[in-house]
Amino acid sequence: MTLTSHGIPAGRSTAAEPTLRATGLVKTYGRVVGLDGVDLELFPGEVLAVIGDNGAGKSTLIKCITGAEVPDEGHLNLQGNDVQFKRPQDAKLAGIETVYQSLAVSPALDIASNLYLGRELRKAGILGSLFRMMDTKLMRANSKSELDRLGISTLQDVTVPVENLSGGQRQAVAVARAAAFGSKVVVLDEPTAALGVRESNQVLDLIKRLREEGIPVILVSHNMPQVFDVADRIHIQRLGKRAAVITPQSHSMTDAVAIMTGAATS
Amino acid sequence: MSNATQTGPNPTAERKPVDLAAEFLDRSTPLSRVRNALHRYPALSPALVLVIAVIVFGIISPRFFLANNLSLITQQVAVVGTLAIAQTLIILTAGIDLSVGAMMVMATMVIAQTATQNNVPAPLALLLGLVVGLAAGTLNGLLVTRLKLPPFIVTLGTLNIFVALNLLYSHSASVVGQDLPNLITATGNTFKIGGIGITYGVVTMLILYVIMAFIMSKTAWGRHVYAVGDDKESARLAGIRVNRVLLSVYIAAGAIVAVAAWIQIGRADAASPNAGVDLNLDSITAVVIGGTSLFGGRGTIWGSLLGALIVGIFRNGLALAGLDVLYQTLAVGVLIIVAVALDQWIRKVRK
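The joint structure predicted for all components is written out below.
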């Protein structure tokens, strides 16, 4: 297989436009340079892993893409349109959903309420428009079918409070929330960091499921075996820059670590 | 003995501890089932306490169930019960409001003084009271959201500020009911249901409860209030504008406090700058006994009405039983500690 300089399969780079393209992202914190002109492309239906050492700019890169930080310079382009995000809500509205390692769900609320948190559906007619009444029944039914679609069979009762779930199930709720509602890009920031082995595997299966559904995924992870298991391409950050983009086929884990630490270039 | 002669492992003896351990892990004991039920329905325990208290006090004193006494209890509960709605909203966001009493007194004085000294028409005077509540709530909300100060400190400060402003404004002078327009004291008027005198103030409180319970359980705003109190960061990441929700909670609380001011004037048939500042603690007591968690995100509006009723009935029942007033205070103190201890225990369901 011939690869371009950024590891994009040669045939593909001409065939498909990236869903998300970041160009020349710069972010500085005082005198500390977080991002030093980073590019990133995410193609339809792929899992792009982002790896790098601590301080390489992984988190900053993700924050700039998801609206948690505003880059000093650079452009974001989502499905051919230039976009600017001032807060996470902007990215969410544009179709970029994020799952955080901190299991960002509301423990006391039930599964359906968590899936619809911040975008509750209202009843039709005067009950919804004047009295602002939520359509709990519809939200529960939709949540159920959404979980079924993603193959999350461990969550059957959507009225169970999230605090009664295991860590893996909670993360499944978070992933389902990100993948539902027709999102264009799902970003997962260390989604398995707080989970055990079996629960991590459930989340990795979910990621593969998202790819099958055609939703492109950005996966930030420290865990090399996981990255090499699910990723189509791997974006390696080093010292605030993109050091290389490789594929699990073209490089080994040892190669990836070497690039990460600067012992080798791509 | 047969045990002593056995050399190899005994299969039955070995399996037994494993089963015990599994049972232990399963934790499906009656006690844990009670805990799970209380966890799911936070108003369950105050409802039980209320029923038991009514039965016990009814047995102790035959006068407890007299129409006049029941009427008295509802009137005594009306003001604290209304303030408790405001307090519930704030405690659900994991905050606390020490200033509700002072805020209410300030609103009563503005209503009474503008109506008597400035000859402002009664509806407009009540509206001015509402404006005072909204402004005071907005001040609290802005200090909490913009300066990021803890609600306890903010409202401890504004408690003192409101008390001082109120005394400066009112010159420490009370206004008696007969000087006030009828509309302003109308919350003290009664009508009879089955021989029990009910004031319009009590009805106003109940209407507020119905409205707020609806908003908290059926609207997105209500759910967002719970989410913010439950886990602020998760709520923010879910796309909820946390500061906007918090500010709106403090403003809504201010509006409810202004209604409490109106009920207070009717109940006391006067507006006094010195009475009611300490109702802040009574409102917190009602909310806590009503099963709302001080850690936020858990509890119901109706629970606070139960909490206010429990306190009212304990005070009333103990007084009827001929006990010294100190024992009422003692009982309320014990209730608070039991309620919070129960809340801690219930929250252990969280894994």
